[in-house]
């Protein structure tokens, strides 16, 4: 296991972090065993959030007795001071700890959300207060707009950023990471498999592992998944392999979607998932989770071409800050499903 100094926090963290978002979906004993096995094998970064159902409780019940062995990161999606303050205290109680190493202002994707969180009665004030009280060591932010995150962190108010970085979403390398490096910030990459769409799994992990980040979090729910993730990172990525992986990323990111979720579809088609997986589906095929996604949404996708309100001007596209050809992508996919 490689270990990196986590930016200006000065703490050392494992290059592979344990993402606990999906633990509520498996039996407690399985989740407990996965967490403890991860710690036993040297994973020292645990990531969760108040909004991940009972993930925080699972962590508290499973590994709180080993608190000195891991760097604990959680998140609040509240934007108001009082609600965030309550949520922070609730998170500490759930995880059976007096402090978290990192509290992130969660899923900030619009200017309006950022301004509200950073306002006089916003959640950032609650985070600062908790930091003064010793409940929080460091403060970070997470989001899906690397270009906006780069602007928001410039004043130096955050210690860390959690961002997408994968074979299908390499955009943070150009839009965000250079700013973070200038500020000496802690860099956490998420979704190396982009929510279960990207394959081959080993190449996906090794791509993110090879990039300029301190730790990457992978959503693991079993001992076997921890083993698989660790096995993919047993050896360092050499220069030739890195060039190959970066060439793959340049091809697989041609969709250009950042998953900011500004778009919305009246037919309830999950457009970001479709955009991001479209090139992978065509070039490499999908993992079982990705195949199940297309089966689940097949009827909606096929009906896009006949949806009258979008015939002249697609409702989704006018909301996209990157002006992506969403309707064309959906209808091209529909032709392969019909």
From TrEMBL:
State the coiled-coil residue ranges. 223-250
Record-annotated NADP-dependent oxidoreductase domain positions: 16-199
Sorted alphabetically, the keyword list is:
Coiled coil
Write out the GO MF terms.
oxidoreductase activity
- UniProt key word RNA-binding: no
Tell me which CDD domains the record gives.
AKR_unchar
Q: Which SUPFAM superfamilies match?
A: alpha-helical ferredoxin, NAD(P)-linked oxidoreductase
List the PANTHER family: D-THREO-ALDOSE 1-DEHYDROGENASE, NADP-DEPENDENT OXIDOREDUCTASE DOMAIN-CONTAINING PROTEIN
Q: What is this protein called?
A: Aldo/keto reductase
Q: Which organism is it from?
A: Paenibacillus antri
């Amino acid at each position: 296991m490689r270990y990196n100094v986590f930016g200006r926090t000065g703490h050392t963290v494992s290059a592979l972090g344990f993402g606990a978002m999906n633990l509520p979906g498996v039996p407690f004993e399985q989740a407990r065993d996965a967490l403890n096995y991860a710690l036993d094998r040297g994973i020292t970064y645990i990531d969760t959030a108040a909004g991940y159902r009972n993930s925080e409780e699972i962590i508290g019940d499973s590994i709180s007795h080993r608190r000195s062995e891991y760097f604990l990161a959680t998140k609040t999606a509240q934007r108001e001071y009082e609600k965030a303050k309550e949520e922070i205290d609730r998170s500490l109680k759930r995880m059976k700890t007096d402090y978290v190493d990192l509290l992130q202002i969660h899923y900030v994707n619009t200017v309006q959300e950022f301004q509200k969180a950073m306002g006089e009665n916003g959640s950032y004030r609650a985070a600062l207060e908790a930091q003064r009280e010793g409940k929080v060591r460091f403060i970070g932010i997470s989001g899906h707009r690397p270009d906006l995150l780069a602007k928001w962190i410039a004043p130096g108010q955050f210690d860390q950023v959690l961002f997408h970085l994968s074979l299908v979403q390499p955009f943070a390398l150009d839009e965000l990471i250079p700013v973070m490096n200038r500020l000496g910030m802690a860099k956490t990459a998420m979704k190396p498999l982009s929510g279960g769409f990207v394959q081959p799994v080993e190449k996906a992990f090794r791509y993110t592992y090879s990039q300029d980040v301190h730790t990457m979090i992978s959503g693991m729910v079993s001992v076997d998944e921890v083993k698989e993730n660790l096995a993919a990172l047993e050896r360092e990525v050499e220069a030739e392999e890195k060039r190959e992986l970066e060439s793959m990323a340049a091809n697989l990111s041609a969709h250009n979607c950042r998953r900011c979720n500004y778009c919305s579809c009246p037919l309830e088609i999950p457009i970001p998932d479709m955009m991001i997986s479209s090139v992978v589906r065509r070039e490499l095929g999908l993992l079982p989770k990705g195949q199940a996604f297309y089966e689940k949404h097949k009827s909606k996708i096929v009906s896009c071409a006949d949806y009258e309100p979008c015939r002249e001007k697609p409702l989704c596209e006018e909301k996209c800050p990157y002006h992506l050809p969403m309707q064309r992508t959906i209808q091209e996919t529909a032709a392969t499903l019909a």
